[in-house]
């Protein structure tokens, strides 16, 4: 048998046998064991077991790169977990290193490591890179707190673009992520920001509202400022300024209202005879411009010499229908070339407030404002004002002001 001389001699003494080399000076030739047969066989079995037990044993296994730092290198006396050393060339290929005599213990350790890997995970909190500083805390205090409290490993990328990674047992990772997100969210809403509102330039007026009525509602509801000018972002058409949390909610609200308005938009044709289209348009297009401005719609004129072409009105369906009704009335009524008409949308019981007993107030309005009232020809038709564009607009404003005061009482 082959064996190292010193350990072999000590083993021979323990068993009461002798080791002899059949060829003196030949270090390659095996030893011979000399003694009683049973004792010699027992000593040979013992020495062969020692030889096999000291042979190195390697058990390969796969461990995710982000979980490797969570595992101990020394698993037991004489048993080591070997993992890749180069950070610039990470690999999942690892191995448990020991000796053949420790095979049983190594198998147990291998099962333990695989169990730890299965019960561990790596996950990233929902924190934007812009808020990594709040996640880290002053001098790394917040990250240190999370590591100590939950016993996890937290990796913050140097490039501040990749996600933060939290690694450990699944239950610890989940708890650490929830706490870290909570702490950041407590700080972030207080940060003053300027956020853009994704909106088309032609929709800005609608978002702001007449007399800033919509902007005022947003400011009162969310405690932010909605404006069309910003020093920080002069290129943006519409921005919201204020604490981050409130600003994000305000932006979402404005965009939701815009989407709802988009759903309410439509295109409606104006049903007039081809020979009356010019009457609807007016000289130089003044009638359609007047109606379009009143209702905030777009009016598309028909192509010349195209059979069946129509005037199309696009906008919020309610406004588009009102526009179409006015244009159709102007096409069918006998108006002076320079006149327009405006329907007065007032309740029948309010006619007396506008016109007075037996029309006395109507005569005064017609004299002083230079307009004319047209009485409804049917129950579903409104009271109409006819006159020059400026005179009609001025008269309508005065009448609605008078009615609003009465309605308030």
From TrEMBL:
> What does the record list as GO biological process?
regulation of gene expression
Pfam families in UniProt: KH_1 (PF00013)
The keyword Repeat appears for this protein? yes
Which keywords label this protein?
Repeat, RNA-binding
Specify the superkingdom: Eukaryota
Query: Any idea what this protein is called?
Result: Putative vigilin-like isoform X1
Q: Which InterPro entries match?
A: KH_dom (IPR004087), KH_dom_type_1 (IPR004088), KH_dom_type_1_sf (IPR036612)
Annotated source species: Penaeus vannamei (Whiteleg shrimp)
Single GO molecular function: RNA binding
User: Taking every annotated instance into account, which residue ranges of this chain make up the domain K Homology?
Assistant: 119-185, 191-259, 264-332, 338-404
